[in-house]
Amino acid sequence: MKKLLITGAAGALGRAMRPRLAGLAETLRFSDIGAMEPAGPNEECIRCDLGDAAAVHDLVAGCDGIIHLGGVSVEDKFSKILHANLLGLYNLYEAARAHGQPRILFASSNHTVGFYRQDEHIDATAPMRPDGLYGVSKCFGEHLARMYFEKFGQETALVRIGSCLEKPSNHRMLSSWMSYNDFKLLIECVFRAPMLGCPVVWGVSNNDSRWWDNSHAAYLGWKPQDNAEIYRAELDAALGKPDPKAALHVYQGGNFVNDPIFEED
Ligand code: NAI
Ligand code: 15L
């Protein structure tokens, strides 16, 4: 790839992935509404509000791949979600349509299916069961991407990320965790695949206790290497045994199922 755009670059995942993406494209174009570390060699940093159509149009120009991490990443007021995740995504897809349809990796979320119970094992055909407005915005994003695929052939990997952080921080994440290295391997597979289409991919490591079946996406060749199980004893020691009745340990979306609808100002 000549130029890869990464939105949400100032966020937790954007910052963690930035050094890991070097080499994937001749130039990495990082973007966020917030401040980012200054650009290094082969990097560009562009401040941009995803809700600003003209700015997003310019941002996407010249890019032949997009990793879309930007947006509201937890439950929040609907107005904020509407701006960043709905309008922002529409702006991104319209910009992509105007600029040669670069392949997109969309950071969707396990909160599209958060109301499944942890004793249910599901695959990509399971109906969506979002656990809040944030989850609904990711369902919207997946449908928007699907529509642009059916109508215009725009390819997107709909990556339903579980919990992508350095290491699992509670027992739920023994199932939902994806390591940074496995995310990097997935990104490489998505952008190197001869044919992508518009698949849902569960963004989860090779955890013994994972809930999600990725066999439909085997053609991508992604083989996650890490397994959260190695952290179980450490979590038991730090947190004690999990309460089997707590939402955190009942639902795939964990505590998100208990979030209220936040009132507007
Ligand atoms: P984060 O909240 O740390 O980063 C999101 C970034 O998006 C922030 O830097 C923020 O400034 C930026 N942003 C928000 N509104 C914007 C706007 N209007 N215009 C431009 N930029 C805007 O979230 P994190 O953890 O880095 O996640 C990245 C993506 O992955 C998010 O889309 C999130 O929904 C998704 N995801 C992450 C998971 C995780 O475990 N980290 C799990 C599931 C999904
Ligand atoms: C998400 O979608 C959030 O963006 C992230 O902050 C985590 O909470 C993650 O899901 C999770 O479910 O652990």
UniProtKB/TrEMBL annotation:
Domain NAD-dependent epimerase/dehydratase: 5-161
Matching SUPFAM superfamilies: NAD(P)-binding Rossmann-fold domains
Record key words, sorted: NAD, Oxidoreductase
Record's keyword annotation contains Zinc-finger: no
A Pfam family hit: Epimerase
Family per record: Belongs to the NAD(P)-dependent epimerase/dehydratase family.
Name the record gives this protein: NAD-dependent epimerase/dehydratase family protein
Lineage: Bacteria, Pseudomonadati, Pseudomonadota, Alphaproteobacteria, Hyphomicrobiales
